[in-house]
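TASK: fixed-backbone design
INPUT:
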């Protein structure tokens, strides 16, 4: 095997190594979520999301796409952005739901089921490139991680029906035929990225003004959904 072939093989493994880091972080997040360590779980979900961004970035930069990498990416994402947030939501539900309605805590795992469906749909949907169709699983996971950390101490005062409705709404958004913009930019021009720039400015202001508190990321994700829906309906008119 010559040096060129060896270098190419090494380059191909870099994105897969980053994806494996995503999976590793997701496993830690699951353990921490079931154990009630919500801050730790949220931190590792965010780490997984960062690694998920960089594995795709590395694959594009190194021209190191592979069928194995594509499959590994989906498997890692279902763990980090499906099962991990489900573990957090289940744990906080089971601790705070009324005893008579405790069985409804298992509805938290619908987040994992619909995330898996979202990822399967993404893999075969050729429309999804510059835009997403439905809420991306990392955004959904970050919402739930932030929401649980921010409200875990208040969960007894949150009506359990509200939480169930929230689970249903976000499961719907994962599969909804609603275009949601990607933050990947083909150019830096304002006219080509107006929605993205306005969103990033407002999201930055929210994070700074809230001093990056636990619930700020949930607000940022809700803003992302709102911006995407408004942009979608404006384009239809």
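OUTPUT:
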């Amino acid at each position: 095997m010559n040096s060129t072939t060896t270098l190419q093989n090494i380059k191909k493994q870099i994105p897969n190594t980053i994806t494996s880091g995503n999976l590793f972080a997701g496993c830690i997040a699951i353990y921490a979520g079931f154990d009630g360590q919500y801050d730790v779980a949220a931190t590792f979900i965010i780490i997984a999301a960062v690694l998920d961004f960089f594995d795709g970035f590395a694959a594009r930069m190194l021209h190191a796409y592979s069928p194995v990498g594509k499959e590994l990416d989906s498997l890692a994402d279902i763990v980090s952005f499906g099962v991990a947030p489900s573990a957090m939501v289940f744990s906080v539900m089971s601790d705070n739901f009324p005893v008579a309605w405790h069985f409804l805590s298992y509805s938290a795992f619908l987040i994992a089921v619909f995330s898996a469906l979202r990822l399967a749909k993404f893999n075969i949907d050729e429309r999804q490139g510059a835009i997403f169709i439905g809420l991306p699983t990392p955004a959904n996971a970050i919402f739930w991680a932030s929401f649980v950390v921010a409200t875990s101490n208040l969960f007894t005062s949150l009506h359990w029906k509200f939480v169930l409705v929230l689970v249903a709404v976000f499961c719907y958004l994962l599969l909804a035929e609603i275009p949601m913009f990607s933050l990947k930019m083909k150019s830096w021009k304002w006219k080509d990225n107006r929605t993205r720039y306005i969103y990033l400015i407002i999201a930055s202001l929210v994070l700074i003004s809230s001093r990056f508190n636990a619930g700020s990321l949930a607000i940022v994700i809700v803003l992302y959904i709102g911006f995407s829906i408004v942009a979608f309906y404006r384009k239809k008119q």
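COMMENT: The CA atoms of residues 166 and 172 lie 10 Å apart.
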